Amino acid sequence: MKNEKQSRGKFSSSFGFIMAATGSAVGLGNLWKFPYLSGQNGGAVFVIVYIIFALAIGVPIMLAEMSIGRKTKLNPIGAYKSLNKRFTFIGVIGVICAFVILSYYSVIGGWVIKYIVTFFSGTHISDATGFFNNFIKSPVEPVIWHIIFMAITCFIVIGGVSKGIEKSSKIMLPALFILIIVVVIRSVTLSGGLEGIKYFIIPDFSKVNSFDELSKVLLSAMGQVFFSLSLGMGALITYGSYLKKDVNLQKSSYIITALDTLVAILAGFAIMPAVFAFGFEPSAGPGLLFVTLPKVFESMPLGIIFAIVFFILVFFAAVSSSVSLLEVVTSYCIDNLKWSRKFSSIFVSLIMTFIGVFAALSFGPLGNIKIFGITIFESLTFLSDKILMPIGGLFMCIFVGYVWGIDNASEEITSGGKIKFRWKKLFSISMKYIAPAIILIIFITSFLQ
Ligand code: TRP
């Protein structure tokens, strides 16, 4: 028992928890995916749909996850098992999902480190497209940076909940805020940047006037809400399990969602004005961060300094997220297999690194290997974002709404009746009907296409 207590940490304060959970939420999803998704899905239209989904589905699911975690004080598999054995599978989906996401997430994390090092060495990237393509196609380099990124993640998780995860987030997250504001100020003051701001805040509904387009926007926005808020796979069950009883879960969920959305929008303001000012395409897709932005920095006064600042901020965001993914599986090994934290983190990291190598190489040497017509990397992202996370989220809503019950959840959310639950009715409606219905409808229409 003593051993268990020692290895199962705790967040030292409410603030520390909020920093860690926001650190989990704010990541490549905000800085890399959100700007390019909005660029591909009609700018402001996407932003509006995203915000509606974040409030209607994101906040309630987040609350439910944190309450399951704090109630059971266990990892996702242990948590579902202890509440109702027949639903253990939801936790299993979550743990599988963590493997899938982190194995490709750390590949992109590795790219970010490569860019920092390149800019830092003073190298001018004159041909950003060529540079990027050569780099990701190489058989060795992306693998090495991916391993380095995983090693850093593992190092923080070995440090434990309060001394590793919480402490690193408390430093990285505020730093990230300052850095992104610096870049936003630079970007919006560029001449010609105004177009980018308009694109991001004034909706152009002509971009969504067919059923196909609309359903694409809805599916992307929903997937993005799950991904960006770290929902549907138990990351917040795990973080919730390290919480003290007196932490206000409702307040925490509003703050985390607000900060995460704020950073996503700031990322748009950092990127879009610059893209417009220098005449690039907002719909450049995943290359927006690694190809378009370096071009923007290249053509900007003092660009290289802003490039370094920007990629360091992306790195901070990515690491504090990858840590939460590794922690999900590590906590399972600690709780259920009774392994030590150090052994668990290293063991799990090695497996994730191994899977990630295939993802890293799927841009080059393994590019010909296709699963249902898409590369290994694309298959992994498809599997996690469009299948495992929504399914995990759907079952979680059903579980909380109909099995464990709204009253049990609300008992935990109110810390045993001590804190008022203002939105209980809305929470209940969202868990039981709105969230499952939206997830199901979008899920089915996307499969029909
Ligand atoms: N939310 C992170 C991002 O936006 C990614 C992430 C971290 C995540 N932990 C997660 C996504 C758990 C889903 C589930 O980059």
3D architecture notes:
The chain is mostly helical. 78% of the residues lie in helices and 0% in strands. It contains 18 helices and no strands. It has helices at residues 2-7, 14-25, 28-40, 44-72, 76-83, 88-120, 128-137, 141-158, 161-188, 194-201, 211-228, 235-240, 249-277, 287-298, 303-336, 341-361, 376-413, 424-448. Helix 11 (211-228) crosses helix 17 (376-413), helix 14 (287-298) runs antiparallel to helix 15 (303-336) and helix 15 (303-336) packs across helix 16. The longest helix has 38 residues, at 376-413. It is globular and about 60 Å long. Residues 1-6 have low confidence and may be disordered. The protein binds tryptophan. Residues 24-25, 27-30, 101, 227-228, 230, 233, 235, 321, 324-325 line the site of tryptophan (TRP).
Task: Quickly list its features.
single chain, binds tryptophan, globular, mainly alpha, 449 residues, 78% helix
| Proportion of residues in helical segments | over 70%
Order of helices and strands: HHHHHHHHHHHHHHHHHH
* Ligands, ions, cofactors: tryptophan
Q: Please report the number of helical segments.
A: 18
* SS-derived structural category: mainly alpha
In percent, how much strand structure appears in the residues? under 5%
Largest sheet: none
For the record, give the distance between the C-alpha atoms at the N and C termini, rounded to a whole number.
Answer: 52 Å
Number of strands: 0
Q: What average pLDDT do the residues reach?
A: 91
Mind telling me the C-alpha Rg? Answer: 21 Å
Shape: globular
Which parts are unreliable, with pLDDT below 50 for 5 consecutive residues or more? 1-6
